[in-house]
UniProtKB/TrEMBL annotation:
InterPro entries: DUF1462, Thioredoxin-like_sf, YuzD-like_sp
Organism: Virgibacillus phasianinus
Name the record gives this protein: Disulfide oxidoreductase
Superkingdom: Bacteria
SUPFAM superfamilies: Thioredoxin-like (SSF52833)
């Protein structure tokens, strides 16, 4: 994969999405994803970011996505691998792993 980092971004809020009752919170999902991905992939090529949608955003890219979440009533957490939306609501590891494979993130040896 070289020196190019893959960025995993999770957008969420402290309050659980109204349509996701019974699901873990966004921050819990963020931490769970780091642990699950770290058991399968070499994490030297990965960067993780958590974006709280209830906080003001200084980066335009994140501000635009937060606005979209509210305008389109998207379910959160929302998971991106680089610029690809791979999960909305309750994430599925299989889908996220497929995106990491597509970006040629090396598996643990």
């Amino acid at each position: 994969m070289g020196n190019k980092k893959v960025v995993i971004t999770v957008y969420g809020a402290e309050q659980i999405c109204a349509s996701c009752v019974g699901a873990p919170g966004s921050k819990d999902t963020y931490e769970w994803l780091q642990a699950a991905i770290g058991r399968k992939y070499a994490d030297g090529d990965l960067n993780y970011h958590y974006i709280n949608i209830d906080q003001p955003q200084t980066e335009e890219k994140h501000a635009t996505m937060v606005e979209r979440i509210f305008e389109e009533d998207l379910f959160y957490p929302i998971v991106f691998v680089n610029d690809e939306l791979v999960a909305e609501g309750i994430p599925r590891l299989k889908t996220i792993y497929q995106a990491l494979d597509n970006h040629k993130v090396p598996l643990l040896s």
